[in-house]
Amino acid sequence: MSASPKTVLGWIGESVRRADGTPKTTGEFAYASDLQAAGMLWGHTLRAPHAHARVRGIDLSAALTMPGVHAVLTHEDVPGRKTYGLEFHDQPVLAIDRVRYFGEPVAVVAAEHPEQARRAAERIVVDYEPLPPIADPERATESEPLHPARETYETGHYLDDPRPNVVRSMRVVHGDPDARGDVVVEGTYEIGTQDQAFLGPESGLAVPDGEGGVDIYVATQWLHVDREQVAPCLALPEEQVRIHLAGVGGAFGGREDLSIQIHAALLALHTSRPVKMVYNRQESFTGHVHRHPARIHAQHHATRDGRLVCVKMQILLDGGAYASSSTAVTANATSFACGPYAVPNAHIETTCVFTNNPPCGAMRGFGAVQTCFAAEAQMDKLARALELDPIELRLLNALAPGDTLPTGQRIDGSLPVAEVIRRCAALPEPAPEELPRPAIRLPGGAGNTTRGEGVRRGTGFAVGFKNIAYSEGFDDSCAARVRLFADGSAEVHCAAAEVGQGVTNVILQVARTELETEDVRLAPGTTAAVGSAGSSSASRMTWMAAGAVRDACRAALAERESRGGGEVDVERVYRHRPTAPLDPETGQVGDLPAHVAFACAAMKVVAEVDVDLGLTRIVWIGTAQDVGKAINPQAVEGQIEGGTAQGIGLALMEEIQTRDGVITNASFTDYLIPTALDVPPIVSELVEDPEPDAPYGVKGVGEPPTVVSTAAVVAALRDATGRELSRVPVRPDDIVGLT
Amino acid sequence: MHGRVKISLTINGERREADVWEGESLLFALRERLGLPGSKNACEQGECGSCSVILDGELVCACLVLAAQADGHEVVTVEGPGFEHVQQAFVEAGAVQCGFCTPGLVVATAALLKQTPDPNEDEIREALSGNLCRCTGYAKIFDAVRLAAERA
Amino acid sequence: MDVLSPRTLDEALRLRAERPGAVPIEGGTDLMVDLNFDRRRPEAMLNLNEVPELRGWSRENGSLRLGAGLTFTEIEHSELASLLPALAEASRTVGSPQIRNRGTIGGNLGTASPAGDALPPLLIEGADIEVASLRGVRRLPLTEFLVGPKRNALAEDELIVAVHIEPSGAAQTFMKIGPRNAMVIAVCSLALSVDRERNEARAAFGSAGPVATLVTGELDGFADRVVAASSPIDDVRGTAAYRRHALRVLAGRALERCMVA
Description:
The complex is a heterotrimer. Among the domains of chain A are: 21-30 and 477-575, Aldehyde Oxidoreductase, domain 4; 33-131 and 201-248 and 255-287, Aldehyde oxidase/xanthine dehydrogenase, a/b hammerhead (Aldehyde Oxidoreductase, domain 3, Alpha-Beta Complex). Helix content of chain A is 24%, strand content 25%. Chain A is built from 15 helices and 28 strands. In chain A, strand 11 (203-208) and strand 12 form a beta hairpin. In chain C, strand 12 and strand 13 (200-206) form a beta hairpin. Chains in contact: A-B, A-C, B-C. Chains A and B meet through helix 1 and helix 13 of A and helix 2, helix 3, helix 4 and helix 5 of B.
């Protein structure tokens, strides 16, 4: 639906202006919430007010007679499979006999005006029998199973744990897990629930095609996986469900799972009218999964001269009510638990549990954010115990190609950990600013709470890494289709979701480079014209789309040459090297690696903290990131700056709060994200160390800044305050010593 | 539902009329009744600035104006004239990612530059503190504001 | 739902008397959130934007009359900033520029939230609230106008017309705590002024009790008295313990600021 105009010259390595930049600044770019169709109705979702309840009955009669109402549907109206899910279909399209989280969809309404749909939804009478919620993840394994139908999950190899309510448990046993060092440091860390808080709320438009099928225009991260989940629920063959990418207002993992897709399609097919659904901000907080909150206990052993001997960690992740991508998050948290350091002996145990808290799944950093926060705090503790410079300690233990991860996987590609540490450490910090200063340049900002009283400055440093692309045997592919026309122009089809990260430019830059022409356009993303691109997630899309578009361009040129000219139309599917699951008993790799490749980043943060009030101002951030090869340096910087801001948010202010599973701050008034006064200037160094297996040497760049920034910010706060600060977001209470 | 309130207002220099439901915001009326979806619906509680428009010369959140309150008044939206240099600067500076905040920021930036043609960093940050961006970390947005100021 | 848009104060008062269910709306910065999120469906809205008598501010024999429709931007960027410095500082902390352009002092009084940013500075300046109805006009001190959390002394047929203040000229300041550096609802706030000749201070806090509360007294031990007057609670924005702690710090700093000013 969005415009894809022909764009200016731009090849790989150039900071090319965004192809969708101008229409996004003028308001012409069509986001999912902007769509309209003739005769359109508005859909609205009735959601559960309880975190856990039995549904004894639903009475629609009053709702059906409300003015303007065209349909009121429940699970009984789902013609096909009643459940869906990314990895397991464990989540009801509409609640069947039980609701397991606050805000779970129970019924959907279509009416002429959104207000009529809301009014009608209010008249639906649901007979709930509230049940005690499992709100504390520590108690999940002692509670009644939330999902009695365990067979739902037997499609995977994950649910071997005999305890109830375990989504996945994993153990990595590496070397001698009982090895002891001269110095031992220990800590318990807690990470609150973060929301993606993308600005464009979940939205979409479903249009019945008059022949029993449906077109769904939606903001998503992966068109084809949506179709795989939607079609069986609608009892339609996949060809009759066409999913088209509508403008995406940010994603960050939160659009991996379905939101309006099946609901809008059900209503559209039922009413034979186009149906639009737009969540409001409050609903959005219950309309997508969140970052897993975590509790981590860590014990680090080192020699007196600072070499890591052994790391032990127990990680508890709260997966919330449904599985979503929790199994993969569990693997990631476990795989990257120790940080980018050579660790000869390790024992890491991760358990991800079901609770009646909000469901958790993908968010930028995907398991590695939580463990980086704990592991880097441990490294600083160790440096203090050893009286070593924290940067020296990190350099001494930095992972390098040829080294082995605790999972037994050898680093056989690029991973310049020592270089990112050195380049980041070398960035000059700004000198302290003189007083007096305007309030907005002090902790507390516009609140005018200090003129310098209580303000201390601190510097923090952290390093983090994570995987690129999908892992553990997932068949990870991306298709691209290239059409060459007689006039020399070209059209590329690729279903890669442009979520704001700039994959549109990556595709165009690769195509221009390969085809040696500026005259390339990118067709709108749709399941109807090209194969799956896989998801815009896991820092994979640049790599995968570059590979697919490169291969398709080269094949198209070859075909044109073999035919001696004329128009050609070829599609190619790119795959990265194969991976395999970690051993369920030992967490070790077999013949194949578990992860494809890795990327790392180091970050230095200068913060000022008002230690009497517990308020913070981040002054400056410098970072060096391993980017493989920057296809578009300006866009890479944008990813680093934005990813860092999200980590600042988790460090200082962002947390979904719940009481017995019920969200108590589902608004932008009470779930706060950083403003223009909360994010400092960010200096970024792009470290280009090409990934040997990747097209053009690229690496994904979106996640490493988010992985590392929370840890680095809190390190600066610890330096300023001398406090332990073992929980994020750090609350003013923690800084002033009230906790 | 057909609106029962008829409003008549000037939008982007043109006289426009619409029938609105009494409880509708100006934002909903612009987006769904007047064919101007450029102002965005990110929070609908005045916390994000994505729906920023100029109402009688003042920067406001369209989500917090009752559509009927705009009757007889003058509204300029991101689709209106006078934003071109700011829009161009946003594209060049790399200030656009997902872009959902961009229309609001374009309008807020234009409002800032009208009052303060050569803003310093503090003035830029404070003036844009009501416009949330989740993608960029703001750095390139500040670059865009400076670029637009230089060129104006 | 109806929308009523009177063009004069008389007409507004008449409509208010005829339609007690009509909810007054000025800048909409509170009420529209309730409408957008389906929390409130009043039978009618009384749009006060078109009532000229509510706009602007004026001097009246050494005192100031602030119209109920005066916006926070107008306070921040007018001569009022030097006449009522704490109110101007508070105005600058209200929401965002967009909110300050629409939000009004009358709206803050009408909502009567314990977090209303204008309330503490008005309390320390001894503001009177002028309310009117077809029955007549009355003035009452702000301390009497605020009767509970989100409750004020406005009768069903009355409208808030203006705020009257005799500026004290005392050194004063306003501070507000939030979890981020802009655009926050107060975790707690404090306005404070010092009369150095009398060795007395006046303070009022927000978000640390059911209503914004005035505390006056001599300088010795004043910060403790401010904390003692508070009765904060734990909520999603902060803990009671932190609010007490912060009030003490703010009061200490504010006293120092005002003593050196």
